[in-house]
Amino acid sequence: MSGFAMKLPGYIVTALERLEAAGHKGWLVGGCVRDAVMGVQPHDYDITASSTPEETIAAFEGFRVIETGIRHGTVTVMIDGEPVEITTFRVESEYLDNRHPSGVSFARRIEDDLLRRDFTMNAMAYRPDHGLLDLYGGQQDISDGVIRCVGDAAARFDEDGLRILRALRFASRLGFRLEEETHAAVLSRAHLLGGISAERVYSELCGIIVGKHAGTIVREYARVLAEVIPELSEIIGFEQHSKYHCCDVLEHTCRAMDNSAGDLTVRLALLLHDIAKPRVCKRGADGCDHYLGHPELGAQMADDILRRLRADNRTRETVVRLIELHDCAVVPDTRRAKRLLRQLSYEEAMLLMEIKLGDRMAHAEPYRDISEIIAMKELLTELHRQSPCLTVGDMALGGSDLIAMGMKPGKAMGRLLGDLLEMVVNDSLPNEKAALAAQARLMMDEYTEE
Fold first, then answer.
1. Which of 127, 146, 304, 418 sits most deeply, having the most CB atoms within 10 A of its CB?
2. Calpha distance 67→73 (Å, rounded)
3. CA–CA separation, 104 vs 358, rounded Å?
4. How large a percentage of the chain has pLDDT more than 90?
């Protein structure tokens, strides 16, 4: 790229100059160079150098040096309070487990280091005094919107099967397409994903589904993703004989994702929201398919899937709750909005509305009206601003007050408090201590321990 120059922060310039002064060559590599070529300001910088770890440590005498991964050639140097990772040029031996090289050897040439990298757009290097080093056409592939493996695509995926999901993550995020050989190798090597740890798979899967082009990637590579979520294979081509739908379950899922915000919880819920439809589908006398119970079973299946993938508990539990409620009716009145806020936090309720927006927009044309969902979002926001009484803990009357009135602690007291709350939520009783106490006295005799 003629005239290409990266604007580098001072601490990175210092790192390169210190290496140069010690007789070594340092290059910026990887994502920071890729982003700069794309016109995006990098936030992280990786340096690879001709120096061994010991030589790197010597070059930065007087600086704080952390032996981050010295066996693999990486040390971290603190410069102006910023951590700078410097890794020795490397070549890797055979990958015996499709995940990790059996050994790592240090090299003295940047060309050898770039040869081991995954995709051409990640195999570029930069030095201020040299400019861009692009041995494999990475800048042209970026210009063309193409993801291409360095060298033989099948060999790159055989080395590390996770690169398959990395390719899809970049495609989802950037809107790039996979070059023909890379595409073919993704399909033929998809089985390698079965040997990758759940944590690594989940991390890349999250990157795929939050991308701007997630729906496109899930649509085109559903059978690849089914290697890590086998349940997805059930919705591929599963037609929906229903007036509300005009496509199969997979296509509906992809359209719903395309019409949703890029929030991870929303996208996970939409990816899995109809996963149970093939298992509960019943053809009615009207000739239409019905999916009674699919939210509940779908929530159970999602829980199983996310446990297998080692998703964090908070994300898993939220996704499961949202899938269970995704098919609920939306009627934007105060009473129903309050009921929803008793089931979910405000933040979760708003996520549910985002899920319903994506779901509704993926319906057949006559059934895409989203006005009630928009109205419910506005109502939920207004109620949240008002901080209404939605839980027993929000009430002006509590268990200690009932004890003072002569009631014994126990399940009966809990039922009474719950019924008082229901009256407050329904606006049939004000959340005032005197009014609640008066109503409690009228009702107490009906609440006895069984």
1. 146
2. 9
3. 47
4. 74
249-334+341-388 maps to which CATH number? 1.10.3210
What average pLDDT does this structure show over 321-344?
94
pLDDT value, residue 450: 53
CATH level 3 topology of 10-139: Beta Polymerase; domain 2 (3.30.460)
The amino acid sitting at 63 is F
Three-state SS annotation for 11-66: HHHHHHHHHHHCCCCEEEECHHHHHHHCCCCCCCCEEEECCCHHHHHHHCCCCEEE
User: Strand, helix or coil at 104?
Assistant: strand
The tokens for 326 are: 């995704």
Under CATH, to which class is 145-228 assigned? mainly alpha
Confidence of residue 428 (pLDDT cuts 50, 70, 90): confident
CA–centroid distance for 13 within its chain? 34
pLDDT band at 97; cut points 50, 70, 90? low
Q: What is the pLDDT of residue 1?
A: 46
327 φ, ψ (degrees, to nearest 5): -100, 10
Spatial distance between the Cα atoms of 82 and 446, rounded to a whole number of angstroms: 67
Beta strands in 155-288, from DSSP E residues, in sequence order: 177-178, 282-283
Dihedral over Cα of 410, 413, 414, 415: its sign: positive
Phi, psi of 72 (to 5 degrees): -100, 10
> What is the dihedral sign for C-alpha 59, 65, 66, 67?
positive
